[in-house]
Amino acid sequence: MEQIKNKSLVAVGNRRPEPLFALSSQMVRNERFWRWGDDNMMPYALSLMSRRSTTHRRIINDKADYIAGKGFSFDESVPLLKLLVGQANSNGESLRTVLYRLAFDKSLMGNAFLEVVTDEEHSTLALYHIDAASCRVARDSQHILLHHNWGAFKEDEAQQLPIYPLFEKQKDGSLRTVIHYKEYEPMFTHYGVPKYIAGMGVSAIAYKTDCWNISRLENSFQLSGVMMLDATAENEAEANRIVRAAESRFAGNPGQVMFVLREGAESDNSKFIPIESHNEGDWNTLHDQATSDIVIAHSWFRSLSGLDYSAGFSAERILHEYEVALNTVILAEQEELMAPIKRLIGDVVGIDTSSLEIVNRPPTRSKPIYMKVWEARKADGLEYDENDEREQAFLSEIQKYNVTKIN
Domain map of the chain by residue range? Predict the structure, then answer.
């Protein structure tokens, strides 16, 4: 393990079911933790919803990517800081990777958890992202319980870690704590609520309209209708068997065609009665409206979500919306995530983190690479010092450095 001034920074160590919300109707009661949702399965429902709604997932991915930035700028004369940025834990993950996962969880679930590992001498430091779905707040509100499957919780399998600023010694001799990030919401104390909470319904609508299109494709865009079958059945069980056999052979997607069995006559009068529908425009409008509402619920922007590319690529609009997003969403989220990390680094290993800043770059180039840092900060309306040696570097030098770090 690399040692610098006796300190190191790597630690040891028939009808389709509704898939979005109704994961469990059972109320979970336990005296060891606070439930996350009525059935304690809210993170699972939120995760499943993000996997089913394309626009919803794209926004979460993009927000996390923008918040994590393109790397870090810092004073390279502080070797410990350079080591931490390049490798934040013993898994080989960079600080940018850890930050991205925290931003992803916070955007998706309204909560994120960061495990901090050190020792009694404060000679080591490691930062680990913890999957938010595996965490619950203990009843004392001073600890986090970790379990791999909260649908089958067993107390002897759970791990308990204190919430920062408390540190507790573990069996391996390390000192550990957890930083709990959460989105503020009135009436919610133990867990945060995702910002898109008002858009959960429209996310489900977007998913269902996608399913409707898939259903039509699977049935070759055939009309729905009622199939009247002339057949003789000795009992109800036999009638059900005939209907099920007809459905499996001819119906396609369940619910596309309804089969009705009637007593057979001398001649076969079986026939198909179509149910014509002229609501395709309504469905398309509903899908488009749901997509727009998802973007609004996320406090995000259409051009940054790839929704308007089909109408033409407008670099000017993308840059404009990026600047708005930077000043209304991205910088605030970066400050919320990085402030406790920078404070903790200083408290644990005594590193000056004042120079540690996230590098933000728009999706398209907005400033010439021959601009100096202080000129770019001035153009962005940020604080700058044209006499500061660190701000005398050209943007091309910073971009080259960060590309090297990321690769």
Answer: 1-197+298-366, 203-297, 372-407
Q: What is the pLDDT of residue 162?
A: 97
**Where is pLDDT greater, at 203 or 390?**
390
Contacts of 402 (CB under 8 A, 6+ apart): 70, 71, 72, 73, 359
267-289 pLDDT, tens digit each: 666 655 555 555 554 666 776 77
One-letter amino acid at 271 equals K
Would you call the peptide bond into 79 cis, given omega within 30 degrees of 0 as the criterion? no
Task: Tell me the per-residue pLDDT of 18-54, one tens digit each, with 9 for 90 and over.
Answer: 444 444 434 455 689 999 998 999 999 999 888 888 8
pLDDT, mean of residues 149-178:
94
Q: Among candidates 57, 43, 300, 331, which has minimal Cα distance to 191?
A: 43
The answer to whether 135 touches 143, Cβ cutoff 8 Å, is no
Angstrom distance (rounded) from CA 289 to CA 286? 5
Distance CA 328, CA 67 (A): 12
173 φψ region: left (φ > 0), alpha (ψ -120 to 50), beta (else): left
